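A further point concerns the way the authors explain their paired sequence and structure data. Since the whole study asks how a given chain folds, the encoding of that fold should be made plain. A single example would do more here than another paragraph of explanation. An entry of this sort, consisting of the sequence and the corresponding backbone structure tokens, reads as follows:

_____
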Amino acid sequence: MEGDCLSCMKYLMFLFNFFIFLGGACLLGVGIWVIVDPTGFREIVAANPLLFTGAYIMLAMGAMLFLLGFLGCCGAIRENKCLLLFFFMFILLIFLAELSAAILAFIFRENLTREFFTKELKKHYLRNNDTDVFSSTWNSVMITFACCGVNGPEDFEAVPLLPYSPVESTTPEACCQRELQSREGVFVNREACLTGIERFQNRQGCYTVILNSFETYVYLAGALAIGVLAIELFAMIFAMCLFRGIQ
């Protein structure tokens, strides 16, 4: 009976580690896609040091889970106590790090309000100044998502015009409609847009557009994160039970 129980635990351990292995492969794939994606998101990531760092953290986490899942599978099948202990310690560290990140995200969620982004935009935005990281990032966001400001073009009424601007307009160039939503896309009518003709402008605010775009994915990501934490927790339990059962 004890041998049957140990055998069952071994194969359950293998199964959970296989899921961790697949999860690491998915994170690795998403991290690589975010960095090399040619559709415009790469510009946003490269312009924002926080997102740039986050993409590489995702890559590192994916590679680590990929490796640990592989080691866990090997440790379970071969009944190797050293591999199982190594796996348990690293999964525990990753579990605690993910839990801490989730708690911090919940605590600082109030910094992601519409009012916060509007205040920051009016304070730091420098229009077409691509040497400024904040402005370049916002321009990339507005071009990629075909939106304007946080709430709409009226957000830029308090933003000073550039002294060399050829057209007097409070609407930045990034809010103008393009045939293709990328920096290389041709303007539908740039001059009409900058002179204030609304039908050539993207009038919807980025906050609403991005929220609608990612609403489904946020719930999916949350469910995935809970699933990953649960899998890691069960994998640690199985690893410790298998470790104690091996003679």
Observations:
- The chain has a mean pLDDT of 75.
- The radius of gyration is 24 Å.
- Residues 206-245 form the longest helix (40 residues).
